[in-house]
Amino acid sequence: MQAEPHDWLDNDAGPVVRPYAMTQGRVAPEGGEFDLVAFVVATAGEDPEGGPLHPEHHAIVAASWEPISVVELASALDLSIGVIRVLLGDLRSAGLISLYEPPAASQPHDVDVLKAVVNGLRAL
User: Fold this and answer.
1) Domain that holds residue 19
2) What phi and psi, each to the nearest 5 degrees, are found at residue 98?
């Protein structure tokens, strides 16, 4: 007896899981926002006490044993930035990763430098 085809299975692409299913409908990471150029580093490889991790969580931890930016991580795992942010928030809350933002991302821009750049561009 052959199984009936499912709507969530694409013969060419394999199983199709929507982003909201991976994030359980959440659109913002736990613990606040972080920059796209922040570096992600795994701190532990064990499941948190709150329950087992999803495959996407395991993939993030495995990919971040060496420092990797949030954008590079999204590209490497072929996940959207929104999904990556939510999953990173879960892992950060569980203590399985650390996020390090570069100093330029956390400090406000110097207005004088921006004005000098604009003036330099106008001079061209």
Assistant:
1) 9-123
2) -125, 145
